[in-house]
Amino acid sequence: MVYQEVIFTKDECDTIINYKDKYHSFLVTPEWSVLKDTRTVYHEVQLEKSWVKKYNVWDVPINEETFWFYDRIYSWFINVSGVKIDKEIYFKTEGAAHKLHEYQVGDKFDLHIDRNEDNLDRIWNLGIQLNSEYVGGDYVCYNQNNEEIHISKKIGNVVAYTSDTLHEIKEITDGVRYSMVIKLHSWELIKKDKKTLL
What we know:
Layout: E1 2-6, H1 10-17, E2 41-42, E3 52-53, E4 56-61, H2 67-81, H3 87-90, E5 97-103, E6 109-112, E7 122-129, E8 134-136, E9 139-142, E10 148-150, E11 157-162, E12 166-169, E13 172-175, E14 177-185, E15 191-192, E16 195-196
Antiparallel strand pairs: 1-11, 2-3, 4-5, 5-14, 6-12, 7-11, 7-14, 8-13, 9-10, 9-12, 15-16
């Protein structure tokens, strides 16, 4: 199941984009593994699989300044999915942050799923479409029948789907694409009789 709906205004999305000027960029790999004179990041663990992630990323923490948009997307998700999130615990977790992504011309994210043997507790993917001034960069999910589900490029559109859903970001051919990516883990869900509500 893929949920999506516009819940943020353009001005609000611009505010989120501008957090990149306040928070530091984030590399999940050691600096030596970044190829010189390129923006391509090779992930050390994945070198043998020739897996490449190519885009810029910033960590945007959950704090008093950013709480407004995190709370809104979590509340929206709870409402449309019926999944109960223990926001009280998560919002007080020290160091809690999610990723602001910037894709420039030539950037893409190949077909993949986000729940794997290294991320078994990742349950849901949530995201915010922050701008539309770019060409290419289609965000495509695939259902169990391998049918394409296109995520809207409307500014302020939010999306949610389970982390075992196959998806990709096509190559940007013009402009710059910004999006906010939020990972929802099993430990963030309210549990009943030691079982999650999923």
